[in-house]
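seq/struct pair 1
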Amino acid sequence: MAGVFDIELHEPDDTAHLTIQSELQSDEDSIEVEDVSMLDQGSYYETFVNQPDVEAIPISEQNVNQGKEKTGPQDFELRKVLGKGGYGKVFQVRKLTGQDSGHTFAMKVLKKATIVRNQKDTAHTKAERNILEAVKHPFIVDLIYAFQTGGKLYLILEYLSGGELFMHLEREGIFMEDTACFYLSEIILALEHLHHQGIIYRDLKPENILLDAQGHVKLTDFGLCKESVIEGSVTHTFCGTIEYMAPEILTRSGHGKAVDWWSLGALMYDMLTGAPPFTAENRKKTIEKILKGKLNLPPYLSPDARDLIRKLLKRTVNQRLGSGPEDGESLKDHPFFRLVNWNDVLMRRVDPPFKPALTSEDDVSQFDTRFTKQTPVDSPDESTLSESANLVFQGFTYVAPSVLEDVNRPHVIKARSPRKPTFHLTRMNSQPFSPRQTTYQHFPCFNSATRSSVDIGDTMDTGMPSIVNNATTDFQQQRFMPML
């Protein structure tokens, strides 16, 4: 078993102001009305509206305060349960109102009272919401709405009906190299985009990679991201999922964006062999293997695949592929990707190796039936935070620009003007230990219990965290994945 940890240790716009100077009005700027009775009697109004180039438009909700769409729980119909966790639920929902009425989304519901108990959970939730708003990319889940009630937070995200890459890898056992190459290429572009925005992802694993209806990749769960990381700077947070965590995170020697490329190497190894590169019967031994164990590469891997994995899993950071200023470009130039047209990948012109067999937009066949068979109920909002506690969630509300554009488009009113005319391999019994060979409770839309995101809290201890010294410690607190 392994978990995802987060221990914060050391975390080490100039806008030009436009001054508007007002000048005193002269008498020449004044307009003198000689006959006030015209205004009193309404004749001036009648004269104006009766002009041939003036169009009278009745005031209504459709043409006043456009772009200010207000959305709440009442605007969504609960269709299916897609997952559960310690913080709440994820539902499949259908929009009932507005220009996107009838569209299917994923709705993540978070309990404020549970989140505010832990300062880190609060910070992670806010960071996740902010990143989802700021980052728009073809291979990153899209946030559509965010709103709140007295006791809950709601994130409305695009519904990814293809399910988790984890489930498809579980079903196939291992991927062929061309299949792995497809998924890795899209993931590289997503990670590279995050890095360009000063964001380190830090929790790359199959459970956090979902597929859309066409089979393309979407990264989800941004709760462990680190924002505002500039080139060459490091952070010291102990976080991630053990099997995919880079050595520098485990040793707490400071880490940067190169940790994501280690995780990509671990993910690539997992795809091609059926298990992460360093696993053991408990967390302590798994960590020891990551820090000191030998990397064993199966003989059936191609020379290019072996070389790429070796270069991504270099324990010395500055020797790791992607660690330099060129970032993801050095990965793109590797021979393993020699047949990849990166522009075609970015434009989603490459056919996915697997296209989900779906019957409709709201198909849930790629999700666990233990959840989808449940009756979807958003429990009553019983707890209400104090006004001061609620301040931490100020500014949570969000409406995607694309929604605002759709809202505005049908209601544009133009004044009349006389001047204008009008890829199957079965897992072999001889495969090494894999977390997917064990029986555990797995939550689609949430991190699994064996590889869950857990916050241990801040510590200034210079030794390894307690999880290293106590292999029997079991962290079961789960982090939400932000989307489906």
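seq/struct pair 2
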Amino acid sequence: MDNTQTTAPSAPAASGLLTGKVAFISGAGRGIGAAAARLFAREGARVLLAARTEDQLKAVADQIRAAGGTAEYAVCDLADATSVRAAVDRAARPSPRKSPRPPPGC
């Protein structure tokens, strides 16, 4: 039996459920993590991808950006607390495109 798909599955229309949210996704370089990152971005989230392999992270981030999403990545080893803290701190920073206005008088 040949289970080869001959047409690409169509993605459901995005509803914007995550617009204005930030999603930190570990294991985002491939498999379920990469699929989750694409889905969250399609729903409007700014995604920060984390994994140990930069080439894979860059590829997924590029795919998300090409589809109109916002994605950044951080090389991160979840077994290293310092690495995790740095990645989380990066996720918590405002997006460069949506930087807050400076306080009045600045």
